[in-house]
């Protein structure tokens, strides 16, 4: 009798251990699958949103870096017409392949990092405040967005650097770079590893308000609209696609307006050291301006071209950012819904 009890107890113990092991495996496998789906959704969101506004993205960069003594692009409409006339349809999307190769992993890392950062910050906030029902405030969302932006920017910055150079190449410039990998290897070989991170500091400083405000404004607007439930905008405790697009547009407009001067300086610093830069940047018979650092770039840009130079390309960038950020946020949430990922950025 005793032996039977021992045997029964042993079998129960083994069964319990097996069940616990299976339960431990299930969440791990589910978590990995959820992470992959989240990264995939972020990548798709970035690729779709950036391709939709690729012509405006290229024009913005050309306006940012063109030589003030040899102006070829005088505005959004004129600039797009000039590119179409001189380079055709392919000219409008030049650098987009490289851009997507950068933005897809950047967007994937950014959205995933925001989810993780916001979860960690919320846990710390609830623990510190002692309120287990506390929710993220706009300031905390700003901090989570800033963390996500810094991580994503740092992880993919070399691709962004060479993308800027490829985008600046025109039909009249020497085609030094044949593609992203050729550009990466050429810059590394001719200018060294540090050249791949030229303009990194203003990029990181700029990404804090830009990405931070994007997430903070988008999330806060959505939360406010869901709570206030204005007529026609909320459907079954959720926002319509059009309303979410509007929230994303507002978020993008606020973020890019604050961070835009740093983006201009970043682009100009990225061109330093490029001996075969297009004449649009260097100018005929003129030496390109050399910058010793971010502050020096700000000072020389303002001294030589005025304060308005810090906002060159703002109009096409604004036209680009409004749909781009909106499409990215909505695409991300729609793809996650399709893939069946439970956690969304609002959660």
Q: Overview of this structure, please?
A:
The structure is a single chain. The protein contains eleven helices and two strands. It is an all-alpha fold and 347 residues long. The chain has a single domain, classed as Mitochondrial carrier fold, CATH 1.50.40.10. Strands 1-2 form a two-stranded antiparallel sheet. Helix 5 crosses helix 6, helix 7 packs antiparallel against helix 8 and helix 8 packs across helix 11. The longest helix has 51 residues. The termini are far apart.
Q: How many β-strand stretches?
A: 2
- State the fourth-level CATH superfamily: Mitochondrial carrier domain
| Name of the CATH architecture | Alpha/alpha barrel
Q: What is the radius of gyration?
A: 25 Å
Please trace the helix and strand order, writing H or E for each element.
HHHHHHHEEHHHH
Distance between the termini: 55 Å
Strand count, sense and barrel status of the largest sheet are: 2 strands, antiparallel
The largest beta-sheet arranges its strands as 1-2
Q: Which structural category fits the helices and strands? A: mainly alpha
Portion of residues in beta strands equals under 5%
What is the residue-mean pLDDT, rounded to a whole number? 80
Low-confidence stretches: none
**CATH level-1 class:** Mainly Alpha
Please, how many helices? 11
CATH fold name:
Mitochondrial carrier fold
Number of structurally distinct domains? 1
Oligomeric grouping of the chains: single chain
Instruction: Report helical residue fraction.
Output: over 70%
Subcellular location: Mitochondrion inner membrane
InterPro entries: MCP, MCP_dom_sf, MCP_transmembrane
Protein name: Mitochondrial carrier protein
Solcar repeats: 33-120, 136-224, 239-338
């Amino acid at each position: 009798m005793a032996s039977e009890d021992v045997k029964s107890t042993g079998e129960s113990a083994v069964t319990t251990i097996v069940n616990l092991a299976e339960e431990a495996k299930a969440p791990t496998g589910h978590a990995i699958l959820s992470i992959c789906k989240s990264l995939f959704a972020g990548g798709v969101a970035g690729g779709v949103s950036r391709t939709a506004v690729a012509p405006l993205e290229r024009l913005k960069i050309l306006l940012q870096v063109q030589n003030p003594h040899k102006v070829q692009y005088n505005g959004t409409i004129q600039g797009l017409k000039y590119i179409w006339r001189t380079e055709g349809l392919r000219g409008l999307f030049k650098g987009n392949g490289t851009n997507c190769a950068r933005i897809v992993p950047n967007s994937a890392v950014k959205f995933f990092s925001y989810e993780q950062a916001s979860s960690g910050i919320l846990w710390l906030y609830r623990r510190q405040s002692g309120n287990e029902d506390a929710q993220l405030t706009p300031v905390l969302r700003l901090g989570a967005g800033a963390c996500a932006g810094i991580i994503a920017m740092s992880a993919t910055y070399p691709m962004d650097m060479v993308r800027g150079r490829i985008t600046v190449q025109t039909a009249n410039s020497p085609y030094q770079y044949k593609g992203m990998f050729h550009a990466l290897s050429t810059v590394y070989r001719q200018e060294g590893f540090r050249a791949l991170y030229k303009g990194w500091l203003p990029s990181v400083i700029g990404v804090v308000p830009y990405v931070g405000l994007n997430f903070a404004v988008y999330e806060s607007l959505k939360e406010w609209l869901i709570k206030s439930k204005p007529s026609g905008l909320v459907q079954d405790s959720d926002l319509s696609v059009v309303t979410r697009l509007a929230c994303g547009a507002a978020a993008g407009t606020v973020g890019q307006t604050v961070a835009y001067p740093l983006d201009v300086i970043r682009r100009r610093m990225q061109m330093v050291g490029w001996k075969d830069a297009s004449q649009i940047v260097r100018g005929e018979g003129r030496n390109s301006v050399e910058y010793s650092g971010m502050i020096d770039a700000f000072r020389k840009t303002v001294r030589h071209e005025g304060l308005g130079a810090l906002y060159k390309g703002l109009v096409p960038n604004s036209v680009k950012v409004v749909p781009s950020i909106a499409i990215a946020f909505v695409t991300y949430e729609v793809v996650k819904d399709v893939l069946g990922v439970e956690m969304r950025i609002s959660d």
